[in-house]
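Note to self: keep these together.
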Amino acid sequence: MKQNEAGEKRNGKRQKTAVFSFLSHPVVSCFTLSSSVLLCRILSYSVVLCFFCLSPALAEKPSPAQKPAAGPEAKAAAVSPRDGGKTAVTRHSLLLDGKTMEYTATAGFLTTGGAGIPKAHIFFIAYEREGGGSKRDRPITFVFNGGPGASSLWLHLGAAGPRRIAKSYEGSLLPPPYRLTDNEYTWLGMTDLVFIDPVGTGYSRAAEGEDPEQFYGVREDTRSIGEFIRLYVSKYGRWLSPKIIAGESYGTTRAVALAHHLHDTHGMDINALVLISSVLNFQAIMTNPGNDLPYVIFLPSYAATASYYGKTSFGSGVSLAEALQEVEQWALREYLPALAQGDALPAEERRSIRTKLSLYTGLSETFIENNNLRISAPQFLNTLLREENLSPGLLDSRYTNVGRTEALFYHDPSFYGTLGAFAATMNDYVRSELHYEGDLSPYEYLSKRVNALWNWGSALQGYITVTDTLQGLMQRNRYLKVFIASGYYDLNTPYFSSVYNANNLRLGPQLRENIILTFYKAGHQMYTDREALTKLKADMEAFFDKACPPLRGDTPGLPSEGR
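Structure:
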């Protein structure tokens, strides 16, 4: 298992501050697992909790190798008529790595159901690179965010798609008007792309007469998206293409469940999973009574945040990655066993744990003792910068709110600061550039209704987890590769949960090599930081070379083109 750190150079410790608005949105969703009612953090956007902040460094100025983007009228030309108002196909070009790449975009719906009875109309936007050889040889990646209840808008216009927001983000609201520009960091050079909006998000809706709640749940959603993928690869001739599933936040839970469902239901094997800000085991992030694991998992992210604001120091010459490795080891070897002892923890050991926690978190020993050595994310965020009357953000703790925060992504400066830009550009993009005009219903970028009605199901262990599912997939398919990207400053899905989960899959040394862990000096959407975004693309290019090595079309007995 390989680990990789993003290098980020920061100009001082400038606090990225946005005015905080006291809104009353619930931070948790209640769901019943087994016989107990548990509280689960809303997981924004993908995988992964994917609500989006645009780059602190996504620049407006095109790179020297790029030409200014031509207007959409010059770039896109329809190559097929509308399919009853349901599908629009356009052609575009993009200057990528100094070369012009032409691609086809398809925007429209696939209708799921059986026996001629429609169940749901699922909206998608797909991109296929032209001149890349046979479809059989080109990888295709199915992409979505999470929520539950989030559209694929965030990964689409933030990281993977061929177009992105043409503004920079410095922790404050982006001023309208908004524009899109070519995305030099797009994944389209590596793989064809299909962005999927689950039912109840984007333009996707249940069919007339169908109850939409039949799609709002862990299992229900898996079946629905699985049927979409089966229909897509059948309609567009991609059964033999290398297939990748990419998700963010809750989307990473969905991605693993989908890979299992597609294999068991349709005999469809997946080449790779791309998991951004992953949540594979909810026990690792839910601070409920009797569950001490999250306090251990969050601690390294607390330390990274405290260091960023100068509330703690790891000494000169020590990199952030090296310092956090020390925190990780202490958390597992000393902190977790101490918490397990509860009231039986000897006084001297308790004093030692308290002192070390104060050093790592920047919080006072009195505060730590008063909270029984257990610090939740909301407590940490509301206490670290209390004297400055600031609170770090949940999704990216480098950004701050003025005043107290309820640790909601709705209140997060890296979410609300760019919401208008993403919503406006997506609504314009599908019409002005993709020429899709068949739906005037609202584009549901994030549905609180879907999230509130989500059926989390039941589980004997009391927490949703797909780690056993992932383990089974990797053991049955030794070619399956897994890419896990995490941000050090993410206090929604802390990076150490990815490490912990990967280390507890019970895989042999050979299969462990199929898991690539990468880390970035950024938050929940690490791709919103220019340096992290640059490295994310490089990391993914290396991963794709390993997961889907270039196919040369010279397999004995098979033609190189035509299928």
